[in-house]
Design goal:
Elements: E1 4-5, H1 11-20, H2 27-37, H3 51-60, E2 61-62, E3 70-73, E4 79-85, E5 88-97, E6 100-104, E7 108-110, H4 119-123, E8 125-128, H5 131-139, E9 149-152, H6 162-173, E10 185-189, H7 193-202, E11 206-210, H8 216-222, H9 225-228, H10 231-238, E12 249-255, H11 263-273, E13 279-284, H12 298-310, E14 314-317, H13 335-342
Parallel strand pairs: 1-2, 6-9, 9-10, 10-11, 11-12, 12-13, 13-14
Antiparallel strand pairs: 3-4, 4-5, 5-6, 7-8
Helix pairs in contact: 1-2, 5-6
Length: 343
Amino acid sequence: MDKEALIGKTLHELQEITSALKLPAFTAKQICEWLYRKRTTNIDLMTNISVKNRELLKENYCVGRTTVVEVMKSEDGTKKYLFQTLQGYIESVFIPEDERATLCVSSQVGCKMDCLFCMTGKQGFAGNLTAGDILNQIFSIPEADQLTNVVLMGMGEPLDNSLAVLRALEILTSDYGCAWSPKRITVSSIGLIPGLKVFLERSKCHLAISLHNPFSEERLKLMPIEKAYPIQDVIKLLKDYDFNHQRRVSFEYILFKGYNDTMRHARELVRILSGLECRVNLIRFHEIPGVDLKSANEEQITWFRDYLTQNNIISTIRKSRGEDILAACGMLSTAKKQEEEKE
């Protein structure tokens, strides 16, 4: 019988487990400390819990940590890590930069959203990650202790797996868990409104919305989600919430040559974002097989940024990292690895 993983359990869930095993009431907090502060990989190492009680835990539970399967290193220092989960393989990307060290974390194996410009979407969907799978990516890389920031911008749509994502965020930010400031974490979404509402109510972490085109009919050609949850409705919802220095909302905008990089698009972007305290992150497109889109050139990207900034929309150009190892935005895919496993 496979043992159930403890990693990814909230304090409340661990209290239910220890109560069922008739362990002392304080044992749940001890387990939390071992899992989330000391990052232990084995129940036997939880030495302030009696041997007898550790044996009771071990009968049905394990820590549930897994190690990196493979690592690739880019010329720019970016590293891409491969992990195996029960649902399939996933990738995480470590990005070192000056005073920051960011980990881009996956939330699903593949993705259902099928955005035209994203390799993960071409892979299809194999399953949701557990909160433990999400946390394991953060805890199990060699640079775990160096991390200053985590972004849920890897494989999958986080708000299509909102319960596991919110459980992981609770553990990362709670006093009983890692006690991180929510400002260290950003969750990216294409705008699934049901999950977005829950996230906005239950989390103080930063939010990034994948926008990519301000015109509904043009965005729909890039992102099928536009039909169910138009970007105008997403922005309307966001305007009901207070975004300030405590919690930031940003918009991701990949610039495609001749498709969404014109004055018409820039003006409409300013119009729809007016009144919402936010920033726009401009991203170069990293070409993928079978997709007839090209990145806007540097001159056009710079012009677009300057236009937004001049019209009171804070805008930055995101530095491209890890393209040579397929670790840049929209390039994560474990389809080849999944196929190898089937052979």
